[in-house]
Amino acid sequence: MIDHPGRKLLLTLCSCASIVATGCLRVAPRMPKVLSNPAPIAYTPAALDADIAVYRAALAANKPDAAKTERNAIVFHLIAQIDLAYGAFELHLSTRRAGAQTAGDA
């Protein structure tokens, strides 16, 4: 077989193009367009402190229903914040792991 001067370069470029074209570096499902730009959840420490103050004031005023409602709101805010952070962590982890596995396979 005759060795053409640009053969190695052509093979390298074709290999790189095929790896990029396969899309193996992203295994996580794409976010639906409806959910792709969710409103940011920013439950700041100041907002948490204010909500806790409202909760304690409701307890002190002997209003258990208002206190329960405020407590539930605090918990739901915290759950949403945790879910958002975990979702970002999980997406980053799965794409990083897939990239490492694809590179190892290559």
Give a concise summary.
The protein is mainly α and 106 residues long.
Give a verbal description of the structure.
The protein is mostly helical and 106 residues long. It is built from three helices and no strands. It has helices at 7-22, 45-60, 64-105. Helix 2 (45-60) runs antiparallel to helix 3. It is rod-shaped and about 90 Å long.
Structural class: mainly alpha
Task: Give the helices and strands as they follow along the chain.
Answer: HHH
Which word captures the global form? rod-shaped
- Tell me how many strands there are: 0
Distance, first to last CA: 25 Å
Number of alpha- plus pi-helical segments: 3
- Provide the gyration radius in Å: 26 Å
Helix content: 55-70%
Query: What fraction strand?
Result: under 5%
Query: pLDDT under 50 segments (min length 5)?
Result: none
Give the rounded overall mean pLDDT: 77
- Biggest sheet character: none
Which keywords apply here?
rod-shaped, mainly alpha, 106 residues
Please specify the SSE layout and strand pairing.
Elements: H1 7-22, H2 45-60, H3 64-105
